[in-house]
Structure formats: structure tokens, C-alpha cells
Amino acid sequence: MGDVAAVIKVMPESIETDLMHLKDMLEAALPENVVLHGYKEEPIAFGLKALMLTLILPDSEGGTESIETAFAEVEGVESVQVVEVGLI
């Protein structure tokens, strides 16, 4: 078994949401064996930006459901969407 790279799109509740603070809160919410590999801001519309987080997790984790659940519980998160998953 190897590692998996997952790209997860997190939409903030509003354009006033501090994305750097939100990123820090999301990183703190990650399960113990998951690592934030990188992130970028993606413009959506009318000043709204999403966070695109690239995560590395063990294949034995069995998917991204635990991460999605953890992210959804973070204050300031409107929605969580898995964009891409692949073995590395």
C-alpha cells in the first residue's frame, strides 16, 4: 500500500472569511496521519475564493470521508468537495 494525494475544495461562508485563518483551522482539524502538502486560492465569482487543499494520506485510510467530515465541522466552512484523488 502506498500514499494517496487528494485535492479538496473548501468553500468559505462568505467573502469576508479570512482564508489564511481558515486554512490554519483546517490544517489543525486534519486527522493525525494526513499531511497538508499545499494549497492555493481559487477565484470563484464576485470576490469569493475557495481554498484548494492538496493532502497526502495513507492508502490504508480507506478514503477521504474522515477528512471531509472534519473539514465540514470547522467554523467558517460552507461546503467541502473532493476534486481529485490518486495514488502517488
From TrEMBL:
Name the Gene Ontology molecular function terms of this record.
translation elongation factor activity
Question: A Pfam family this protein belongs to?
Answer: EF1_GNE
Mind telling me which InterPro entries this protein's record contains? Answer: eEF-1beta-like_sf, EF1B_bsu/dsu_GNE, Transl_elong_EF1B/ribsomal_bS6, Transl_elong_EF1B_B_arc
List each coiled-coil range. Answer: none
Q: Where is the Translation elongation factor EF1B beta/delta subunit guanine nucleotide exchange domain?
A: 3-88
Keywords from the named record: Elongation factor, Protein biosynthesis
Family to which this protein belongs: Belongs to the EF-1-beta/EF-1-delta family.
Q: What does this protein do?
A: Promotes the exchange of GDP for GTP in EF-1-alpha/GDP, thus allowing the regeneration of EF-1-alpha/GTP that could then be used to form the ternary complex EF-1-alpha/GTP/AAtRNA.
Designated name of the protein = Elongation factor 1-beta
Q: Which gene encodes it?
A: ef1b
